[in-house]
Amino acid sequence: MEKIHDILSDKFINSEAEIRGWVYRIRSSGKITFIILRDSSGIIQCVASSDNLNEDQMRELSSMTVESSMEVSGTVRKDDRAITGYELAIKSYKIYERNENFPITKDLGEEFLLDNRHLWIRSREFTSVLKIRSTVFKAFADFFYNNSYYQVQAPMFVSTATEGGSTLFTVDYFGEKVNLTQSSQFYLETLIYSLEKVFTIAPSFRAEKSRTRRHLAEYWHAEGEAAWYSNEDMMKDEEKLIEYIVNEVIKNNSEDLNIIGRDINVLKKIRAPFERIKYRDLIEMANKKFGMDLKYGDDLGADEEYNIMIHFDRPIFVTNYPEELKTFYHKPDPENPGEILCHDMLAPEGYGEVIGGGERIYDLNELLDRLKKNNLNPEDYYWYVDLRKYGSIPHSGFGLGLDRLVTWICGLKNIRDSIPYPRTVRRVKP
RNA sequence: GCCGCCAUAGCUCAGUAGGUAGAGCACUCGGCUGUUAACCGAGCGGUCGUCGGUUCAAACCCGACUGACGGCGCCA
């Protein structure tokens, strides 16, 4: 049994091959039938003609339907008329299941495709996105393993918020109300005291009723935390990480990039280091060079990020946000009062934020002070506060939206198309 | 939560100044030995999202609701 991709080669010409998969396209003109068969590796045209097959077999093959499953064996030959350059002359075959009719045809509506997601993921384009996604997840983990980080796992049921606000899903936990995690950061911070450098890949849940092309209610959150790291140290790892992931995709998925129409040359420009721009300098740049109208203290919304990042062809780091724009645990910058040691990584081509990170406060009183200012009860965060009492050290971390990263790398219009089963405000099926 | 847009055949969409609905694809049958989302002929296929209102008459006008998509805010 061969994989289709393997027999698309001059080495296989005139040799016998046996493949199995699903009918991708079928065309018949009576005495000759073309069945394009697909498996996970690719597609190939299979030809049924009366040279090799009897009348009954010809009739049976000509009435096959899209997505029916079958096994085919025959001789491989080169033919420019075949969609992938080679074809297989069918000598024998076995049908596993002949479909009545496959619901998805050439006309594709958004709602219909979302309702039939379980079938749509078979499409050639989606298959390629899923392969790229697989590379991204593997490359993320590999990069950190190669850089002395340990992989850890944090709980999904939690009792404290990380960010504050009403963005948490509440679930019944043996009669007690608890939340689904929106970030594993605090747990990662506890783990650096034994492992020093840790990372995790886990879902995060946000109950925000966001209706945009870059939000999911359940998304894959890749987070890292490193002892003794400054904000700058963290950015250095992150830019190398992104460069590594993009390189792995270029190396392993060039055919997939081609199938989804993503220009590989755009990705080849993604080389570390990435430019670091202080928030206040970015505001000035946006106003002077890009004709925008921003004030110091404005948060960068989706429009702003788009209008800025459309001018860049590689990611940038935005650092030194004003204190009031970010959450309580960020460490203030001693050299720039009112600003914090943090960074957002914005992806180019208008994609915007994919990473948020920075240095954490490690002084006990400073943390208690910031909790108070944000109207948070230190008792709820007792275990997080404890870290500042027992061998506290400088450290930094980050959170990366893997689905956003895949969306950008694949050049997709909507984050929904980066994940097999997107969970959004209005959709939990299929 | 706010704003916008949409809902007609299994799918994608037309549709008339308000007068009882149409195409392409899919499917079924027939034709064709090199097709490329094949082509040609025929057939099958609809309480025009739901409820209510205006009218002699509503898919079309009005209202509410439901569902879907997009944008903002929030964030990754």
TrEMBL record:
InterPro entries: Aa-tRNA-synt_II (IPR004364), aa-tRNA-synth_II (IPR006195), aa-tRNA-synth_II/BPL/LPL (IPR045864), Asn-tRNA-ligase (IPR004522), Asp/Asn-tRNA-synth_IIb (IPR002312), NA-bd_OB-fold (IPR012340), NA-bd_OB_tRNA (IPR004365). It comes from the Archaea. GO terms for biological process: asparaginyl-tRNA aminoacylation. Belongs to the class-II aminoacyl-tRNA synthetase family. GO terms for molecular function: asparagine-tRNA ligase activity; ATP binding; nucleic acid binding. The keyword Plastid does not apply. The keyword Protein biosynthesis applies. This is Asparagine--tRNA ligase.
